[in-house]
Structures are given as C-alpha cells and as structure tokens.
Amino acid sequence: MVTTHHTYITGGNSEWEHFGKDDILDAERTNCNCETCNSYNMLKLSCELFKITHDSKYMDFYENTYYNSILSSQNPETGMTTYFQPMATGFFKVYSTRWDKFWCCTGSGMESFTKLGRHHIYTRG
C-alpha cells in the first residue's frame, strides 16, 4: 500500500510525516516531503518482508530507496543529515547542524550509514 500509493520514485514518502489520500503525490509536493525516518523504517520493513517471502520486489525497493533516499540524505562536506527531502520545485535540502538542528532523522541518519557493509541488495530469493 505504501510503495504503490504513497511513495515517490526516490523511495521516499510522506508529507509532514503523514500519508495523505492515495495517489495524490503530485498534489503533496512541498518542502516537507520524504522524511528520512520513513525511508529508514521502510527499509527495515522491506528486509523483514523479504526474509519471509523471498520476493525480490522488496530488495528492489530497498536498493532504490537506499541509493536515492538514504545515501542522498547526507551532506558530503559536513556529514550531517536531512530531516525532509523536499519534492517541490525550488526547495532544497536542509541539513542538521552540530548544535541547533537535531531531529529524529539525525539519529536514524547516522544509523543508516552503518548499514553500508550489509549485503541486503545482493541477495536473491
């Protein structure tokens, strides 16, 4: 349901941490789309569903989302991470800072990069 009705091509989803009506992603493009924690949790879920079903669609989702939502959430100069990854035209990513911008996605963002050594996307059903 989430991947077919609430997820952008990047693998990210949500608008202000919520799902709206089905299939209205274009109408929900703002500066507060694609919360990184949602992507983080969807990756955890897709791994568990793959373990149960061995359906490669879960690892396809994992690969796409990890590359496009997680890896792109880190500032390459500072190492800080994003909260939202805006999908609306004209907006840009806002990264956490060491002292005054720290969100839930900052913590899950740090944990997400510890998963680089995992081999999830190289599995087969």
Q: What would you say this structure looks like, in words?
A:
- By secondary structure, the protein is mainly α.
- The protein has one domain.
- It is 36% helix and 0% strand.
- The protein contains four helices and no strands.
- α2 packs antiparallel against α3.
Series of secondary-structure elements, N-terminal to C-terminal: HHHH
Strand content: under 5%
Name the helicity range.
25-40%
The stretches of 5 or more residues where confidence is low (pLDDT under 50) are none
Question: Count of DSSP helices?
Answer: 4
Q: Which structural class is indicated by helix and strand composition?
A: mainly alpha
In short:
This protein has 125 residues and is an all-alpha fold. It is 36% helix and 0% strand. It has one domain.
Tags for this model:
single chain; 125 residues; 4 helices
Topology:
Layout (H helix, E strand, L loop, with lengths): L1 H4 L30 H18 L3 H14 L33 H9 L13
